[in-house]
Task: inverse folding
């Protein structure tokens, strides 16, 4: 659990927090300067704070997770800051995360290099098995704080809200209806609520042990609001942003598209090699299972070319 965090928005608390969390501009630390969204996010965190144990704060080392880390401290809510290593993390991000006080760094059971042969295919935009197994693991039975924002993707705009609850859909909906909460069900069967009121709080309180319950206090923040907030508190965030990068996640993440994947592999050639080796092992597994590799998945290298979009002969997921 994080120690020495400020309680509420007292000047003393913010100063104390600034000494260990990169907040350097004392003159900026005025309660009156907080925007409505900041104050709202802080109130939300206070309202949903679990009574029996700290929040589980999902910390990726990116700008959005820096915002929630600072907000949680400003709100004075108890929280564990947890960073999940994925084994394909950008080294600069790992160094940055290590520099943040009180972060719990968690290693996965299986590396990406093991997962790929096991799954029989590389992770793709549509089949992101690695996120579930590597990045989003942990925090079962806890109330999580995430830095999810609608501005990040259309998918998030559709599926996330201020509060998102996944799992036990029937009983959770029953509870939400019983308590008179205003909710909708997203296309993945999750429950989404956009009100930080007592009804929503009671739904989370009753359901979080058996579901995955997420509070997304900055869900409606724009990119510029995120940067404005971080600037205000003197947090420069991950140094990779200063090199012009928009994302600071995994090396070779398929979500960023082929060109960015290729430029990452040029920067981190050892990771490219490890992916190619994992693809070689993946093909061995596929061959043993008698799966069709088509004519163009003949080696780890050829899978890599297909993966980054350099092979025009595309296959569909039904082919795999
Ligand atoms: S590579 Fe991309 S999809 Fe996979 S865990 Fe990392 S962020 Fe998620």
Result:
């Amino acid at each position: 659990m994080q120690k020495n965090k400020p309680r509420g928005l007292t000047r003393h608390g913010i100063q104390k927090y600034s000494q260990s969390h990169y907040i350097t501009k004392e003159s900026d630390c005025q309660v009156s300067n907080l925007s409505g969204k900041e104050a709202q996010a802080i109130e939300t965190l206070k309202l949903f704070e679990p009574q029996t144990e700290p929040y589980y704060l999902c910390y990726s080392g990116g700008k959005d997770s820096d915002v929630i880390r600072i907000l949680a401290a400003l709100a004075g809510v108890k929280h564990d800051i947890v960073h999940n290593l994925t084994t394909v993390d950008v080294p600069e991000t790992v160094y940055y995360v290590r520099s943040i006080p009180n972060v719990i760094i968690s290693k996965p059971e299986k590396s990406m290099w093991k997962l790929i042969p096991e799954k029989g295919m590389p992770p793709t935009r549509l089949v992101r098995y690695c996120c579930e197994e590597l990045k989003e693991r942990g925090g079962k039975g806890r109330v999580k704080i995430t830095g999810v924002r609608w501005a990040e993707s259309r998918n998030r705009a559709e599926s996330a809200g201020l509060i998102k609850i996944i799992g036990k859909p029937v009983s959770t909906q029953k509870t939400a209806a019983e308590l008179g909460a205003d909710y909708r069900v997203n296309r993945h069967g999750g429950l989404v609520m956009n009100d930080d009121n007592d009804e929503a709080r009671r739904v989370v309180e009753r359901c979080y042990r058996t579901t995955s319950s997420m509070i997304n206090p900055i869900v409606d923040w724009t990119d510029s609001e995120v940067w404005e907030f971080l600037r205000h508190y003197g947090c420069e965030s991950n140094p990779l942003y200063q090199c012009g990068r928009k994302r600071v996640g995994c090396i070779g993440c398929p979500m960023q598209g082929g060109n960015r994947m290729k430029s990452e592999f040029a920067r981190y050639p050892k990771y490219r090699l490890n992916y190619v080796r994992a693809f070689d092992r993946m093909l061995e597994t596929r061959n043993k299972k008698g799966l069709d590799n088509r004519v163009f998945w003949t080696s780890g290298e050829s899978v890599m070319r297909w993966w980054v979009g350099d092979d025009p002969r595309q296959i569909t997921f039904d082919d795999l």
